Amino acid sequence: MSVFEPGSDRKFAFGRSPIFGSVATPDGSVAPVETWELIYQLGDVGAWGVALHDDEVAPSGAAPAELDDNFDKVSKALDSTGMVVSMTRTNLSGYPVFDDGAFTSVDREVRRYAIQKAMRGIDVGAELGADLHDLPAEGVSSVAATAPLDALDRYREAIDFLCGYVSDQGYSTRLAVHAKSPAHRGESLIATIGGALAFVNTLDRPEMVGLNTGFAHRASPGGCYGVDQALAVGKLFNVELNAHVGHEPNPGVGSASVGDAFFLVKLLVETNYDGPLHFDLDVGYLGGAAGICDLVGGCMRTCRALVAKAKRFADDPEIRDALTECGATELAEPSVGPFCPDAGRMLSVERFDARAMTSRRCRGQRLDQLVADLVLGLR
Amino acid sequence: MSVFEPGSDRKFAFGRSPIFGSVATPDGSVAPVETWELIYQLGDVGAWGVALHDDEVAPSGAAPAELDDNFDKVSKALDSTGMVVSMTRTNLSGYPVFDDGAFTSVDREVRRYAIQKAMRGIDVGAELGADLHDLPAEGVSSVAATAPLDALDRYREAIDFLCGYVSDQGYSTRLAVHAKSPAHRGESLIATIGGALAFVNTLDRPEMVGLNTGFAHRASPGGCYGVDQALAVGKLFNVELNAHVGHEPNPGVGSASVGDAFFLVKLLVETNYDGPLHFDLDVGYLGGAAGICDLVGGCMRTCRALVAKAKRFADDPEIRDALTECGATELAEPSVGPFCPDAGRMLSVERFDARAMTSRRCRGQRLDQLVADLVLGLR
Amino acid sequence: MSVFEPGSDRKFAFGRSPIFGSVATPDGSVAPVETWELIYQLGDVGAWGVALHDDEVAPSGAAPAELDDNFDKVSKALDSTGMVVSMTRTNLSGYPVFDDGAFTSVDREVRRYAIQKAMRGIDVGAELGADLHDLPAEGVSSVAATAPLDALDRYREAIDFLCGYVSDQGYSTRLAVHAKSPAHRGESLIATIGGALAFVNTLDRPEMVGLNTGFAHRASPGGCYGVDQALAVGKLFNVELNAHVGHEPNPGVGSASVGDAFFLVKLLVETNYDGPLHFDLDVGYLGGAAGICDLVGGCMRTCRALVAKAKRFADDPEIRDALTECGATELAEPSVGPFCPDAGRMLSVERFDARAMTSRRCRGQRLDQLVADLVLGLR
Amino acid sequence: MSVFEPGSDRKFAFGRSPIFGSVATPDGSVAPVETWELIYQLGDVGAWGVALHDDEVAPSGAAPAELDDNFDKVSKALDSTGMVVSMTRTNLSGYPVFDDGAFTSVDREVRRYAIQKAMRGIDVGAELGADLHDLPAEGVSSVAATAPLDALDRYREAIDFLCGYVSDQGYSTRLAVHAKSPAHRGESLIATIGGALAFVNTLDRPEMVGLNTGFAHRASPGGCYGVDQALAVGKLFNVELNAHVGHEPNPGVGSASVGDAFFLVKLLVETNYDGPLHFDLDVGYLGGAAGICDLVGGCMRTCRALVAKAKRFADDPEIRDALTECGATELAEPSVGPFCPDAGRMLSVERFDARAMTSRRCRGQRLDQLVADLVLGLR
């Protein structure tokens, strides 16, 4: 079936994380492929986009000639493959100077340095035609040293400044903040999708900023809750589909928690999400460049299969019947409508038969099993 | 020291959770004390407030005479002890009819029944003079049956309706939504403080609704992140100080994770939080009514000690010195100020000495140890 | 295909957990079906066995006539359906007296009472022909009050005593200890499969005692690690296949984490596990008796599908090829064999080309994707 | 008080983790101090021992002259400071070749290479007089490629071989396996203390092998359960006291979860543990060499304070009284003694008053509060 074949019908995008993940040792090193080589490889497998860190094109301290050469090679690779840069990212990992915080470091000069680095990263994206620029999650290593409200203020100040910069430069770039659970750098300042949404609401130009997120970095049934809030307010700018389980990228949608992956993809399909379907590739995990093709192809294949299953969920008569049977279709109907005194009075005197309601409780078992069948390919 | 003695200087409030937690068996039952008895007991230990579930005063199906008698006994107990009702709560646990969702049940009648129950709970609170009414977290048992965006719509509809009801009745009650990790009922619709904040932003009258939350129900360093976002926008209406570790109420601030408790209390002190300091008492855990006095006294004692330590943090010269030394005081200073083209230009050409910045990185060790000393009572 | 149809070819066993889970309220109660009715219902769907709590047949304080009647009805139901009792269980939940520990309570009389209850539970099992008796996980509510080494001693003493009792009665019953993460009762004394295995090694008659466990009650890739240790030493007496995710029974193999479920079932197939395939049914979740049929049928259906997929893993030529390609088949070969001085000397001077080894690193991507395809029904 | 001052009365030992944690970048690098410098620094603060990775003394590929020079400098530093090497460790992190497993890699040559590296690491330890050699946790990146039972066999084969090597060389070294939750390398083969204990029981020479562990890498009340099992069978060879919360080393005992730390230290004191009190120092976290002194001194200071608190727990009359009151002292008494038919008969007919037992349930609140007071320095 065509949905399992490589193609350009989906906005599949890939990036490397972390770009400094490979360490040279006397005993055997992993050399990551060059950025342009990666683009050619991704293009061969049918990817639509690539997410690039600033340092992958414009490493700090590079001479102008080197920069020109890098941009040139990347542009050629993009032209040749027909791929786009789905987003650029300011890379802060691998730099000890940012390990205690970047936009929220206690060191004002570090904060300024981080903002400058983000400006340059945004420039890189603008030059390469990326619509989106991703800012990494902020982490805190000493809770005592980092007053939470001040840290929120500094984070807001930085994003507001960068929005101003984007506007002033005439870029159309949108910014994405990254909600993430604590991982590499102590405690995340904003660890949840909801926290990121609430934070965006406090910005000067909330319309310019959204989220880059996905599974909320935890394995649980219904991993789509949280993402739904972002989708409901149009703030899911980029979805990460890696099944983060524990702290190890586990590439390939749903290799660990395919139930979560199904419900997330189903939600994306139902809400007509049209942003990138992004996967981070852990270069350390790849065992060298040779594994990229298998991995990238697999990610797309699994995602397409889940998309097909999500569509089948909508179309399958037995599933529709089970949805009706357990009352699920009723959830779209208002419970009470907007308040008015009459509605309040009527509801307050309505008589309910709790025993009857209990006895007809949601018989989700049949529906859940149909979904299990669907996911497992039994229907 | 007075800070360790019972007194009325703090808004210490206590409630029972869950109120249906004790099960009658042939082999030995736990009979929870009557509501008014609990109030007398709390008053004896010096508590300021009590949080009451609707069913503790007005159980479903109670006859008018029974209701009058209950209100009468509760009012007398409040008068006699000088205590207040810090908040009322709509109890949905222990009712199987709500186990698949209340305001977001797939059964429209169940949704209406839940809203009616909340209206009555709000009435109870208004009659008893409570400023705040707490609505429990919404849970989902079948992800397939509960379309996330519809569930959010129904939840919003219910809260908007209840705000309308509060206004129409002329009550001054504010409502609190409860951000909670998945526990008793499958997956929580809104599991995080941030999610609750973002949700409140979408309501018709966001000013009437805030959060009842606390440790975000997880043990981690810096458990105050998340709570800080609620405080920053004035939305922390009630703080729960139980040290939830795992899924067992572990009453007594910080008996498990006193570091978290310290930073949370410190944040409350620094932001002049003036709401209730709330503790849920697990009646099953208490071993009968006899333990309440020890437990309630212990909660207040530990909390007062942490308040004293938080004040000491602000005043201690060596801690102030360590804060300065590691640059923490600089975090209150703007990094770049508001964007203007000139500021952007200047920052973009600023030269930074990354090596120097790295070498002066946050020496939080001394500060962290001073905090450890402070918490352990070594200073 | 027959593997998807109900049948008696697998040892599918079901039990209720917790049996006191439903609470009578004025507003709508859930009445669990009688034990014998449950057996008829399970038999209708094709189950092989039922796991019974002592209290489901012989509730505390029951009169002799009631007991006789219960045994009679259960025996008739078993005869009529051809089902067996796969195991009996001492029920300790729902009794507040055991909430601070049972075999390890600080109250010696409670410990004796718990052992007596287990003896009676074992008697019930012997009378009903059960091979296995399951003892619940021990929990601790006050760490300060429960000296860990004493608690281990008391737990060991209780199990040793019960083994003596089983022998003395001439029963062929084996006992199962339950490794479990902290849930209902504070901290589990022994929270992991490994801890239970190590504990069994310290018993007087380790051959009589094994484990009742499954997913180790956490969601992670490779949930089979841990279970493998129990299988390797012949100590997996009963496997629980509920996909515990969080703390809510989520019935139906793999509805949440089908990857974990696949690898666990694959391990059971590969090691010719021949014990019960057990599922706990949460009566609260069922929405009344009516859902049992759907749920039980679904559990068996999914499990059979996973068994078929596990067999396919072993037979599929492309998977075999991918296993060979990534070197997986080499893992069965000894690395160095038993130590002898010559082997030591030779290994110590062997020259390795680390770079070459790194560059041929495990290309698991293709294999992992084939497994994803297998699980999703794409092959 | 002397317990807060640096001294040599405790076996405080420190090591670096991970030794390849610092990455050179154009923008600011962290250069870890040389091994001998670290020893002098540790000696200055009063540490007793240092834990060394093989590569810190004998890096792969080092020329004989370099090795001699390294051993010379380290020996001089040890002599000069009077410190000992508490243990040596085979370092496998930072080498991509081991990222899919070392002793359990699917690549037989990699497995042999890892064993050779461990032999050399053991040699380094023997030359430096270390009693203990620590072997890192085994990780698995592709569950499909790594058959669990084969992996256990290979792991056992490697440890058995290394025990043979130690014997054959006439070393007195004991080996430690490392129980660890999944972190850097996918899934840990043996993730728990109990799993490691059960594994050691299957070795050829179990008496030569024990555990290097600590908080079981999770934050929970009663983090001492698990460690207690290792202590009960004399298998805790080295205790790690870092308060691992999440996956970030959080140096300083108990800075996050001082309750856990207290109960662990209390258990060590009560069981007369006499092995090293070990801390891993994260060089990335230190902000350069300058922070070591503060951090190391702080770890010892906090640990000494907790030891003093643990002793106070044993001596304090009010705590003793609370222990008696809640019946905790009764836990040391046998419940039933060894089984004999008479004891069985008597217990089976004993009458218990469940209601009375329930009503006198463990009143741990007072005790728990006394412990809270003790930890907070209020008594």
Description:
The structure is a homotetramer of 379-residue chains. By secondary structure, chain A is α/β, with parallel strands linked by helices. In chain A, 44% of the residues lie in helices and 12% in strands. Chain A has helices at 35-45, 54-57, 64-81, 108-127, 148-169, 193-200, 227-232, 258-270, 283-286, 292-315, 317-325, 341-349, 354-359, 364-376; strands spanning 12-16, 49-53, 84-89, 132-135, 139-140, 174-178, 187-188, 209-213, 236-240, 277-281. Chain A has an eight-stranded parallel beta barrel with strand order 1-2-3-4-6-8-9-10, surrounded by five helices. Chain A has a two-stranded antiparallel sheet with strand order 5-7. In chain A, strand 8, helix 7 (227-232) and strand 9 form a beta-alpha-beta unit. In chain A, helix 1 (35-45) crosses helix 10 (292-315) and helix 11 runs antiparallel to helix 14 (364-376). The longest helix of chain A has 24 residues, at 292-315. The two termini of chain A are 16 Å apart. Residues 1-8, 21-26, 216-222 and 244-256 of chain A have low confidence and may be disordered. At the C-D interface, helix 4, helix 5, strand 7, helix 6 and helix 7 of C face helix 4, helix 5, strand 7, helix 6 and helix 7 of D.
